[in-house]
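Final paragraph of the annual report: two paired records, presented back to back.
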Amino acid sequence: MAPIRVGLALALVLLTGAGEQLRAGDAAPLVGPDQGSLVLGGGGHMGGAIMNRFIELAGGPNERIVLVPTAGSSANYSEVWSGYKMFRDLGATNLAILHTRDRREADSRDFVRPLLKAKGVWFGGGRQWRMVDSYLGTKTETAFRDVLKRGGVIGGSSAGATIQGDYLVRGAREGNRIMMAPGYEQGFAYLRNCAVDQHLLARKREKDLVAVVTRRPRLLGIGIDEATAIVVQGDEFEVVGKSKVAIYDPKRVVPEGAPMYYFLKPGARFDLRNRVQKPGSGASEKGAGK
């Protein structure tokens, strides 16, 4: 009888393990990253609280952080670049700048070497189409995502936030007022089924995502104002900084004539899977201004 009991016990363990794996699979993030963290900033002066949070998520000031200024307009970047100086002033000691306009270079093993042991990647501001042209579909893009798989953090401000969405807004080479541009609609998709806008209230952009999510109703729109960021882990984000974040959910029922969007204030936590604010996590307010 002993072998039978052992066999039954083993079967029970295997079934229990399978059940645990199924439950873990069910709980896997649907929107945010499976591992690691994201920091998406709305542009302007991010402030020490946001940037220090990014450095903390990277493992501290001595961990390797790779700075990617490619959205900017300059041909070359060095340690005199303001983005590099910002991180130095915050105490980061292990920095590398990664930049190219050549997709062939971005698709080479030598180019991605600084990323192989990085715990943090920061995308600078500018125009997101430059990031698409240089990195989308290359070994560099894969290496960015591997930073998350190692439990690291990817952050960025302005264009460096928008590129992290699935659907890319303001990607047109012709100008940043064009919200939907064929050929430049695919971001890096760290936030799946999301479109991310920035400089929200500072540039009076609060209504711009409405047309995007109306035409693409699977999307969740997230608009981030200056000096403000969302910190994403799994399917949840927290609003940090000084201003507000707007949520655009075409699946949400609103009274006729009411704005589609509403605002989250600093301290609010948002459930990306279910598209609702976490209870007791700070105030929110309906749309229509500051």
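The closing record of the year follows.
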Amino acid sequence: MISDAFKKVRDLFKPQYDKKSLMEILPDDVFLVSYPKSGNTWMRFLIGNYISDHKVDFTNSHLVVPDLHFNPEYCKEIHARPRFIKSHMPYTSKYPRVIYIVRDGRDVAVSYYYYRLKRGDLSKEETSFSEYLKDFYLEGIPLFGTWSQNVASWLDRMKDGNILLLKYEDVLKDTETELVKALEFAGLDIEKKRLERAIEESSFPRMQELEVRQHNECPTLGKELENKDILFVREGRSGGWKNYFSIEDEKAFYKYNNSVMDKLGYI
């Protein structure tokens, strides 16, 4: 059953900590939140390169911007303020400030499809894209829910005033403007040259080159993954879903995600 195979991903995103070791959240912490495969890694590089004077790569990004699901214990080692922390969780009131990154759910589905192929827990020969897609929008990802559930949980709290919404597609179109929004939201001063350098060092070709070179030494890329020919940083564009969705796939996806898609203009 596809659903059985789909459940294998729960170990991937299962938090690697227990309640006793949970990090202490500080009032000025900024959480970079998104559904998986929505651009969080790219934003992490952009902000990380800005605050670290362009020193971020795949071997240290989890140290500059700790991952709540990978190394939350490292947060206490960061003394600069504000701290930036990565998360994929649905809405929680515990996060004092949130930069929520949203991406067209159809592109998210394709990106996550390739990630599962990379992990080796999905096979093109055994599972069609349409079969995979049905599990994606019906079952979602363990701990994080479906794409619609996760996104809606944050959209419904936008009125709280402590959440900045960034659309992946807008970051692609005007990276500088959207990065400035994120940095100003966090209370940081903007330095033009540092900004331009951070964007340059976080370009997709640069990140892909780093991934290939550092794959075997990078804990966050999952060096044990079976298919190393599929990159984690794959394309960095929008609209690629059109090459994968049949008309029936698109109708079914819209049926279960129409509310969020309409609200965000993904029609």
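The first helix runs from residue 2 to 6. This concludes the annual technical report; the extension proposal builds directly on these records.
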